[in-house]
Amino acid sequence: MSTVPVSIVRGGTSRAVFLPMSELPADPAARDELCLRLIGSPDPVAVDGLGGGVSSNSKVMFVGPATSPGADLESLFAQVSPAERDVDWAGNCGNISAAVSAYALDEGMLRLRGRQADVRVRNLNTGSVFELSHPLLDGRLSPAGDFRLDGVPGTAARIDVRFLRPGGSVTGARLSGFEATLIDVANPVVILRAADLGVDAGTGPAELNADAGLLARLEELRAEGARAMGLAPSRVVPRVALVAPGGDGCLLARMTSVGRVHHALPGTGLLALGAAVALGGSVIDLPPAPETVIRHPKGQATVSAQVLDGRLEWVALARSARIILRGEASL
Protein backbone atom coordinates (compact mmCIF):
# COMPACT_ATOMS: atom_id res chain seq x y z
CA MET A 1 0.00 0.00 0.00
CA SER A 2 1.42 3.38 -1.01
CA THR A 3 1.15 6.51 1.12
CA VAL A 4 1.67 10.24 0.64
CA PRO A 5 2.53 12.90 3.25
CA VAL A 6 -0.45 15.18 3.80
CA SER A 7 -1.67 17.92 6.07
CA ILE A 8 -5.30 18.79 6.65
CA VAL A 9 -5.46 22.56 6.75
CA ARG A 10 -8.18 25.12 7.22
CA GLY A 11 -7.79 28.27 5.18
CA GLY A 12 -10.44 30.93 5.73
CA THR A 13 -13.85 29.25 5.68
CA SER A 14 -12.62 26.25 3.68
CA ARG A 15 -10.54 23.14 4.34
CA ALA A 16 -8.12 21.28 2.08
CA VAL A 17 -5.65 18.44 1.88
CA PHE A 18 -2.16 19.93 1.40
CA LEU A 19 0.74 18.05 -0.20
CA PRO A 20 4.30 18.96 -1.20
CA MET A 21 4.66 19.85 -4.88
CA SER A 22 7.10 16.94 -5.13
CA GLU A 23 4.11 14.57 -4.76
CA LEU A 24 2.39 15.97 -7.87
CA PRO A 25 2.19 13.24 -10.55
CA ALA A 26 3.46 14.18 -13.99
CA ASP A 27 0.54 12.48 -15.73
CA PRO A 28 -2.68 14.60 -15.66
CA ALA A 29 -4.91 11.54 -15.28
CA ALA A 30 -2.82 10.35 -12.32
CA ARG A 31 -3.14 13.82 -10.75
CA ASP A 32 -6.92 13.62 -10.95
CA GLU A 33 -6.96 10.11 -9.52
CA LEU A 34 -4.75 11.13 -6.59
CA CYS A 35 -7.08 14.01 -5.71
CA LEU A 36 -10.22 11.89 -6.03
CA ARG A 37 -8.68 9.20 -3.83
CA LEU A 38 -7.58 11.66 -1.16
CA ILE A 39 -10.94 13.43 -0.95
CA GLY A 40 -13.03 10.27 -1.28
CA SER A 41 -15.03 11.42 -4.31
CA PRO A 42 -17.45 10.86 -5.84
CA ASP A 43 -19.45 10.41 -2.65
CA PRO A 44 -21.76 13.04 -1.11
CA VAL A 45 -20.44 12.20 2.38
CA ALA A 46 -16.81 11.37 1.41
CA VAL A 47 -16.86 8.36 3.73
CA ASP A 48 -13.69 6.88 2.19
CA GLY A 49 -11.57 10.02 2.13
CA LEU A 50 -10.56 13.29 3.72
CA GLY A 51 -13.21 15.51 2.11
CA GLY A 52 -16.37 16.82 3.68
CA GLY A 53 -19.01 16.15 1.05
CA VAL A 54 -19.30 19.84 0.06
CA SER A 55 -17.21 21.93 -2.32
CA SER A 56 -15.64 24.07 0.44
CA ASN A 57 -14.07 20.96 2.01
CA SER A 58 -13.31 19.03 -1.20
CA LYS A 59 -10.06 20.75 -2.09
CA VAL A 60 -6.42 19.80 -2.63
CA MET A 61 -3.46 22.20 -2.62
CA PHE A 62 0.10 21.43 -3.73
CA VAL A 63 2.82 23.76 -2.43
CA GLY A 64 6.53 24.01 -3.14
CA PRO A 65 9.47 26.42 -3.29
CA ALA A 66 9.33 28.89 -6.19
CA THR A 67 11.09 27.76 -9.35
CA SER A 68 11.44 31.25 -10.85
CA PRO A 69 12.18 34.77 -9.55
CA GLY A 70 9.48 37.00 -8.12
CA ALA A 71 8.03 34.64 -5.52
CA ASP A 72 9.03 32.58 -2.49
CA LEU A 73 6.56 29.74 -3.05
CA GLU A 74 4.36 28.21 -5.73
CA SER A 75 0.89 26.74 -5.30
CA LEU A 76 -1.33 24.55 -7.46
CA PHE A 77 -4.98 24.12 -6.52
CA ALA A 78 -7.46 21.36 -7.37
CA GLN A 79 -11.22 21.62 -6.79
CA VAL A 80 -12.72 18.15 -6.44
CA SER A 81 -16.40 17.58 -7.13
CA PRO A 82 -18.11 15.87 -4.18
CA ALA A 83 -20.67 14.18 -6.45
CA GLU A 84 -18.82 13.34 -9.69
CA ARG A 85 -15.45 12.03 -10.85
CA ASP A 86 -14.34 15.52 -11.75
CA VAL A 87 -11.25 17.50 -10.72
CA ASP A 88 -11.01 21.10 -11.89
CA TRP A 89 -7.65 22.87 -12.19
CA ALA A 90 -8.93 26.03 -13.92
CA GLY A 91 -9.01 28.39 -10.95
CA ASN A 92 -7.55 29.14 -7.56
CA CYS A 93 -9.09 29.23 -4.06
CA GLY A 94 -8.65 32.45 -2.10
CA ASN A 95 -9.54 30.90 1.24
CA ILE A 96 -7.10 28.01 0.89
CA SER A 97 -4.42 30.31 -0.53
CA ALA A 98 -4.38 32.09 2.83
CA ALA A 99 -2.87 28.96 4.41
CA VAL A 100 -0.01 28.41 1.93
CA SER A 101 2.72 30.11 3.96
CA ALA A 102 1.57 28.47 7.21
CA TYR A 103 1.86 25.05 5.55
CA ALA A 104 5.24 25.82 3.98
CA LEU A 105 6.64 26.99 7.31
CA ASP A 106 5.27 23.91 9.05
CA GLU A 107 6.90 21.66 6.45
CA GLY A 108 10.26 23.44 6.52
CA MET A 109 9.99 24.56 2.87
CA LEU A 110 10.38 28.11 4.09
CA ARG A 111 12.44 29.31 7.03
CA LEU A 112 11.81 32.74 8.53
CA ARG A 113 12.92 34.57 11.65
CA GLY A 114 11.45 37.45 13.53
CA ARG A 115 7.89 38.25 14.44
CA GLN A 116 6.34 38.89 11.03
CA ALA A 117 6.10 36.85 7.84
CA ASP A 118 5.78 38.51 4.44
CA VAL A 119 5.64 35.80 1.81
CA ARG A 120 5.03 36.06 -1.92
CA VAL A 121 3.31 33.14 -3.70
CA ARG A 122 2.81 32.45 -7.40
CA ASN A 123 -0.33 30.44 -8.16
CA LEU A 124 0.29 28.11 -11.09
CA ASN A 125 -3.40 27.71 -11.97
CA THR A 126 -3.88 31.38 -12.82
CA GLY A 127 -0.38 32.87 -12.95
CA SER A 128 -1.41 35.39 -10.29
CA VAL A 129 0.94 36.47 -7.51
CA PHE A 130 -0.27 37.15 -3.99
CA GLU A 131 1.32 38.21 -0.72
CA LEU A 132 0.65 36.72 2.71
CA SER A 133 1.45 38.69 5.86
CA HIS A 134 0.96 37.29 9.34
CA PRO A 135 2.59 37.08 12.79
CA LEU A 136 5.27 34.47 13.50
CA LEU A 137 6.04 32.53 16.65
CA ASP A 138 9.14 30.31 16.63
CA GLY A 139 9.28 30.43 12.84
CA ARG A 140 5.68 29.35 12.25
CA LEU A 141 2.27 30.96 11.99
CA SER A 142 1.36 32.21 15.42
CA PRO A 143 -1.17 29.72 16.85
CA ALA A 144 -3.25 32.37 18.61
CA GLY A 145 -4.66 35.81 17.92
CA ASP A 146 -7.68 38.03 18.36
CA PHE A 147 -8.88 38.05 14.73
CA ARG A 148 -12.42 36.76 14.32
CA LEU A 149 -13.49 35.43 10.91
CA ASP A 150 -17.22 35.04 10.35
CA GLY A 151 -17.93 31.39 9.57
CA VAL A 152 -15.09 30.05 11.75
CA PRO A 153 -15.43 29.42 15.52
CA GLY A 154 -13.18 31.31 17.92
CA THR A 155 -10.30 33.64 17.11
CA ALA A 156 -6.90 33.22 15.46
CA ALA A 157 -3.93 35.12 14.08
CA ARG A 158 -4.84 37.44 11.23
CA ILE A 159 -3.48 36.66 7.77
CA ASP A 160 -3.60 39.49 5.23
CA VAL A 161 -3.97 38.19 1.67
CA ARG A 162 -3.16 40.65 -1.10
CA PHE A 163 -3.40 39.78 -4.82
CA LEU A 164 -1.06 41.97 -6.87
CA ARG A 165 -2.14 43.50 -10.19
CA PRO A 166 -4.80 40.82 -10.63
CA GLY A 167 -6.33 42.22 -13.82
CA GLY A 168 -9.84 43.33 -13.06
CA SER A 169 -11.35 44.66 -16.28
CA VAL A 170 -15.10 45.18 -15.84
CA THR A 171 -17.17 44.18 -18.88
CA GLY A 172 -20.89 44.63 -19.30
CA ALA A 173 -22.94 41.88 -20.93
CA ARG A 174 -26.48 40.72 -21.59
CA LEU A 175 -26.94 37.10 -20.55
CA SER A 176 -30.32 35.65 -21.55
CA GLY A 177 -31.72 39.16 -21.30
CA PHE A 178 -30.22 39.91 -17.88
CA GLU A 179 -27.76 42.76 -17.38
CA ALA A 180 -24.50 41.32 -16.03
CA THR A 181 -20.95 42.30 -15.17
CA LEU A 182 -18.07 40.00 -16.10
CA ILE A 183 -14.89 40.43 -14.06
CA ASP A 184 -11.71 38.37 -13.76
CA VAL A 185 -9.88 39.06 -10.49
CA ALA A 186 -8.10 36.01 -9.01
CA ASN A 187 -10.95 33.98 -10.56
CA PRO A 188 -13.59 35.04 -13.12
CA VAL A 189 -17.05 35.92 -11.79
CA VAL A 190 -20.40 36.71 -13.42
CA ILE A 191 -22.23 39.33 -11.33
CA LEU A 192 -26.01 39.69 -11.54
CA ARG A 193 -28.57 41.70 -9.61
CA ALA A 194 -30.49 39.27 -7.43
CA ALA A 195 -33.71 41.23 -7.93
CA ASP A 196 -33.51 40.79 -11.71
CA LEU A 197 -33.87 37.03 -11.17
CA GLY A 198 -36.62 37.46 -8.59
CA VAL A 199 -34.28 36.38 -5.79
CA ASP A 200 -34.02 37.90 -2.32
CA ALA A 201 -30.25 38.20 -1.79
CA GLY A 202 -30.80 37.65 1.92
CA THR A 203 -32.18 34.14 1.41
CA GLY A 204 -30.08 31.39 3.01
CA PRO A 205 -28.09 28.83 0.99
CA ALA A 206 -30.26 25.88 2.08
CA GLU A 207 -33.41 27.49 0.66
CA LEU A 208 -31.65 28.59 -2.53
CA ASN A 209 -30.12 25.14 -3.04
CA ALA A 210 -33.56 23.56 -2.67
CA ASP A 211 -34.75 25.50 -5.73
CA ALA A 212 -33.72 23.22 -8.61
CA GLY A 213 -35.09 25.66 -11.18
CA LEU A 214 -32.96 28.50 -9.83
CA LEU A 215 -29.81 26.36 -9.77
CA ALA A 216 -30.43 25.28 -13.36
CA ARG A 217 -30.92 28.89 -14.47
CA LEU A 218 -27.75 30.00 -12.67
CA GLU A 219 -25.81 27.20 -14.35
CA GLU A 220 -27.11 28.31 -17.75
CA LEU A 221 -26.10 31.90 -17.03
CA ARG A 222 -22.71 30.69 -15.78
CA ALA A 223 -22.09 28.78 -19.02
CA GLU A 224 -23.20 31.76 -21.10
CA GLY A 225 -20.89 34.02 -19.12
CA ALA A 226 -17.99 31.60 -19.63
CA ARG A 227 -18.49 31.72 -23.39
CA ALA A 228 -18.63 35.52 -23.32
CA MET A 229 -15.35 35.58 -21.38
CA GLY A 230 -13.69 33.07 -23.70
CA LEU A 231 -13.11 30.55 -20.92
CA ALA A 232 -12.51 26.84 -21.39
CA PRO A 233 -15.28 24.58 -20.05
CA SER A 234 -15.05 24.27 -16.25
CA ARG A 235 -17.41 23.27 -13.46
CA VAL A 236 -15.83 25.83 -11.14
CA VAL A 237 -15.18 29.07 -13.04
CA PRO A 238 -16.70 31.45 -13.63
CA ARG A 239 -18.75 31.64 -10.47
CA VAL A 240 -22.08 33.46 -10.40
CA ALA A 241 -22.74 36.18 -7.81
CA LEU A 242 -26.20 37.50 -6.96
CA VAL A 243 -25.93 40.92 -5.35
CA ALA A 244 -28.08 43.62 -3.77
CA PRO A 245 -27.49 46.71 -1.62
CA GLY A 246 -27.26 45.57 1.99
CA GLY A 247 -27.88 48.87 3.76
CA ASP A 248 -25.32 51.12 5.49
CA GLY A 249 -23.24 51.08 2.31
CA CYS A 250 -22.73 47.30 2.47
CA LEU A 251 -23.13 44.76 -0.31
CA LEU A 252 -25.31 41.68 0.16
CA ALA A 253 -24.16 38.68 -1.89
CA ARG A 254 -24.71 35.00 -2.59
CA MET A 255 -22.42 33.00 -4.88
CA THR A 256 -22.33 29.62 -6.59
CA SER A 257 -19.62 26.99 -6.11
CA VAL A 258 -19.62 23.78 -8.19
CA GLY A 259 -23.30 24.07 -9.03
CA ARG A 260 -24.62 25.04 -5.61
CA VAL A 261 -24.85 28.20 -3.52
CA HIS A 262 -21.80 28.55 -1.25
CA HIS A 263 -22.29 28.36 2.53
CA ALA A 264 -20.44 31.69 2.94
CA LEU A 265 -18.56 33.25 0.01
CA PRO A 266 -15.48 31.94 -1.84
CA GLY A 267 -12.39 34.01 -1.08
CA THR A 268 -11.70 34.80 -4.73
CA GLY A 269 -15.37 35.73 -5.10
CA LEU A 270 -15.03 38.26 -2.30
CA LEU A 271 -11.98 39.72 -4.03
CA ALA A 272 -13.83 40.00 -7.35
CA LEU A 273 -16.81 41.77 -5.78
CA GLY A 274 -14.60 44.20 -3.87
CA ALA A 275 -12.64 44.93 -7.03
CA ALA A 276 -15.84 45.52 -9.00
CA VAL A 277 -16.96 48.12 -6.45
CA ALA A 278 -13.55 49.82 -6.46
CA LEU A 279 -13.37 49.98 -10.25
CA GLY A 280 -16.96 51.12 -10.72
CA GLY A 281 -19.12 50.66 -13.79
CA SER A 282 -20.66 47.35 -12.71
CA VAL A 283 -24.21 46.19 -11.91
CA ILE A 284 -23.37 46.60 -8.22
CA ASP A 285 -25.44 49.57 -7.11
CA LEU A 286 -22.79 51.11 -4.86
CA PRO A 287 -20.47 54.07 -5.52
CA PRO A 288 -16.79 53.24 -6.16
CA ALA A 289 -14.92 52.84 -2.87
CA PRO A 290 -11.50 51.52 -1.76
CA GLU A 291 -13.11 49.37 0.94
CA THR A 292 -16.28 47.27 0.73
CA VAL A 293 -18.12 45.38 3.44
CA ILE A 294 -19.75 42.31 1.92
CA ARG A 295 -22.43 40.46 3.84
CA HIS A 296 -22.72 36.70 3.26
CA PRO A 297 -24.66 33.83 4.90
CA LYS A 298 -22.10 33.42 7.71
CA GLY A 299 -21.59 37.10 8.50
CA GLN A 300 -19.52 39.66 6.63
CA ALA A 301 -16.05 40.35 5.25
CA THR A 302 -14.20 43.51 4.27
CA VAL A 303 -12.33 43.74 0.97
CA SER A 304 -9.80 46.50 0.28
CA ALA A 305 -8.57 47.56 -3.15
CA GLN A 306 -6.35 50.18 -4.73
CA VAL A 307 -7.11 51.62 -8.16
CA LEU A 308 -4.63 53.96 -9.88
CA ASP A 309 -5.51 55.61 -13.20
CA GLY A 310 -8.30 53.11 -13.73
CA ARG A 311 -6.04 50.12 -13.10
CA LEU A 312 -6.48 47.69 -10.21
CA GLU A 313 -3.13 47.62 -8.40
CA TRP A 314 -4.12 45.18 -5.68
CA VAL A 315 -7.10 43.70 -3.88
CA ALA A 316 -6.94 42.23 -0.39
CA LEU A 317 -8.85 40.62 2.45
CA ALA A 318 -8.09 39.17 5.87
CA ARG A 319 -8.35 35.45 6.64
CA SER A 320 -7.04 32.99 9.21
CA ALA A 321 -5.68 29.45 8.96
CA ARG A 322 -4.87 26.40 11.04
CA ILE A 323 -2.85 23.24 10.49
CA ILE A 324 -5.33 20.66 11.77
CA LEU A 325 -3.37 17.46 11.18
CA ARG A 326 -0.10 16.16 9.73
CA GLY A 327 0.34 12.57 8.67
CA GLU A 328 0.29 10.06 5.82
CA ALA A 329 -2.69 9.15 3.66
CA SER A 330 -3.08 5.64 2.27
CA LEU A 331 -3.90 5.40 -1.41
Helix content: 10-25%
Coarse shape: globular
* Structure classification: alpha+beta
N-C termini distance: 7 Å
Number of helices: 6
Shape-level CATH architecture of the largest domain: Roll
| CATH T-level fold name of the largest domain | Diaminopimelate Epimerase, Chain A, domain 1
Instruction: Give the SSE string.
Output: EEHEEEHHEEEEEEEHHEEEHEEEE
What does this structure look like?
The longest helix is centred in the middle third of the chain and has 18 residues, at 212-229. The chain is α+β, with helices and mostly antiparallel strands. The mean pLDDT is 96. A hairpin with a 2-residue loop joins strand 7 (129-137) and strand 8 (140-141). It has 2 domains: 3-165 and 319-330, Diaminopimelate Epimerase, Chain A, domain 1 (Roll); 167-317, Roll (Diaminopimelate Epimerase, Chain A, domain 1), CATH 3.10.310. The chain has a 19-stranded mixed sheet that branches. The N and C termini lie close together (7 Å). The chain has helices at residues 28-39, 94-97, 100-107, 205-209, 212-229, 267-279, and strands at 3-11, 14-20, 59-65, 73-80, 87-88, 116-123, 129-137, 140-141, 159-164, 167-175, 178-185, 187-193, 239-247, 250-257, 260-261, 291-296, 299-308, 311-319, 321-330. The relative contact order is 0.16.
